[in-house]
Structures are given as C-alpha cells and as structure tokens.
C-alpha cells in the first residue's frame, strides 16, 4: 500500500513496467574501471553501463545490417544493374507460353 502523502500516477506505473532488471557478475577490477569511467563522465555507474551496452548493441546490429564490399566489386555491381539485360531464350519462351495460357482461359 502506498503512503497517503504519495501521489501514484499511471505514468509511474508505465515507467516501472517499461524497465527490467539485468544482473551480472564481473571481476572487481572491471567494476573499479567502470566506476572510474562513470565518474569521469559525471554519471552513475548504472547510467554509464546502460549507455555503453546500448551503444555496443546498436553497433553490432548496424554492422549486421550493412554489407561492406570492395570498391571495385561495388562498381561492377552497379554497372551490371544499370546495363540492360539480354533476354534469355528460356525466359522469352516461358513468357510466350504464359501469354498463350492466359489467352486460352
């Protein structure tokens, strides 16, 4: 039960339900390193870890969505996309058969 002098709003509920807890065990020296870095940035250790983890996750996802190719490969690919394709005999025959089937229906 909430104390009587506390106002409880739906926004508070929303904020609480929009978060979750993440726990992990780390070596003492890593914790000290993170604490030091967070203090230099003038943020809490939680804020520093959250910001750093989020940035790392976004970087991984960004790299996963992008394909990097050498410049010569890229130029050849663009050139092939811009060049008109030569009609393939099998494809032309299939298109003709398709038109004949559609006409018969």
UniProtKB/TrEMBL annotation:
**Sorted UniProt keywords:** Toxin-antitoxin system
User: Is the keyword Zinc in the record?
Assistant: no
Q: Does the keyword DNA-binding apply?
A: no
List, alphabetically, the PANTHER family matched: COPG FAMILY HELIX-TURN-HELIX PROTEIN-RELATED-RELATED
Report biased composition (Low complexity) as residue ranges.
1-19
Species for this entry: Streptomyces maoxianensis
Could you tell me which residues belong to the region Disordered? Answer: 1-20
The family assignment reads: Belongs to the TacA antitoxin family.
> What Gene3D superfamilies does the database record attribute to this sequence?
Single helix bin
The record, for Pfam families, names:
TacA1 (PF08681)
In Swiss-Prot or TrEMBL terms, this protein is called DUF1778 domain-containing protein
């Amino acid at each position: 039960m909430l104390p009587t002098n506390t106002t409880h709003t739906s926004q508070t509920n929303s904020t609480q339900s929009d978060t979750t807890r993440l726990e992990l065990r780390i070596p003492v020296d890593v914790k000290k390193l993170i604490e030091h870095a967070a203090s230099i940035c003038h943020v809490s250790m939680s804020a520093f870890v959250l910001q750093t983890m989020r940035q790392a996750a976004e970087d991984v996802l960004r790299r996963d969505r992008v394909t990097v190719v050498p410049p010569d490969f890229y130029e050849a690919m663009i050139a092939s996309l811009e060049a008109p394709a030569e009609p393939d005999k099998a494809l032309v025959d299939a298109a003709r058969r398709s038109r004949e089937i559609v006409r018969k229906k």
